[in-house]
Amino acid sequence: MLETESLRKVFKKQVAVDDVNLYLKQGESVGLLGPNGAGKSTFISMIATLTKPSSGMVTWNGQDVIKNPNIIRPTLGVVPQEIALYKELSAYENVKFFGRIYRLKGKELESRVQEVLELVGLKDRQKELVKNYSGGMQRRINIAVALLHDPEIIIMDEPTVGIDPQSRHYILEMVKRLNEEKAMTVLYTSHYMEEVERLCDRIYIMDHGKVIATGTKEELTSILSSEETIQLELDQPSKPFEEALKEQSDVLKVTEWEKGIKLIVAKNTRRLAGIFQLAEHHQVSINSVDIQVPTLEDVFLHLTGRRLRD
């Protein structure tokens, strides 16, 4: 349905997107996961025909999108990361205005306006000015605009950034319904691991402009199938203890978390005894130990050396 091949974008000497290959099948929900600055928004801008690539290909059902952007535009809905609304207008006026840009008219326009307002849960408040909406409500109207022309594919660029938990939950459930009930193809970008896990059939992990891993959740976590995660809650932080753990041959990764230290270690090793010996030597009090199977967060940490939101 949609495919990129060696897609690249360079701004002056800064490589924002570096030879990215990605494909979307009809009806899939695909996640593009990465921290701020990973190149996700630039990548989306290119496949949405808003930014011209420096090199590479974008094809839609086998046709060249770069040479002919109009083959994809009528079938594509884009939810930008920034709110793209007129805040002095009401929600109804905003949606109707953008509907006219989509060349909808008369009864069809009015019908679609009411349908999308109901879909995003704001039909009863459509006459209120957007400037009086909460951030979460504004983001829902942003989504309504992208759905007006009933697109085949919707691209959502971090649609839950900076909003309240209730609006976030509403948006995630709505995206799930669009994909499962309406068979809409979804490309969903986020730096929230749990969102992508919840919504997406396949996941691309992106960092520093490159795709560094791709697959289903199960395929990605299998990267660390021979490892396990040990999470230590400490009474107080200790750099000497942390450094001592890093020197152990079967400890693959050591990172700090809010209450202590997280380790990725080789499975089937008698590691806990050694950890408690090191803690005693460095006069560190361990409050709790939690042994976990690797998560997508652990995979990201393993591949990049940093946490997703760092």
Automatic annotation (TrEMBL):
The primary location reported for this protein is: membrane
- Which molecular function GO terms apply here? ATP binding; ATP hydrolysis activity
Keyword Nucleotide-binding present in the record's keywords: the answer is yes
**One biological process term in Gene Ontology:** daunorubicin transport
Location in or out of the cell: Cell membrane
Q: Name one GO cellular component term.
A: plasma membrane
Locate the ABC transporter domain: which residues? 2-233
Q: Which domain of life is it from?
A: Bacteria
Concerning its family, UniProt says:
Belongs to the ABC transporter superfamily. Drug exporter-1 (DrugE1) (TC 3.A.1.105) family.
Membrane disposition: Peripheral membrane protein
Question: What Pfam families would the database entry show?
Answer: ABC_tran, DrrA1-3_C
Q: Which residues form the signal peptide?
A: none
**Keyword line:** ATP-binding, Nucleotide-binding, Transport
Q: What is this protein called?
A: ABC-2 type transport system ATP-binding protein
Keyword ATP-binding listed: yes
PANTHER family per the record? LINEARMYCIN RESISTANCE ATP-BINDING PROTEIN LNRL
Instruction: Output the InterPro entries linked to this UniProt entry.
Output: AAA+_ATPase, ABC_transporter-like_ATP-bd, ABC_transporter-like_CS, DrrA, DrrA1/2-like_C, P-loop_NTPase
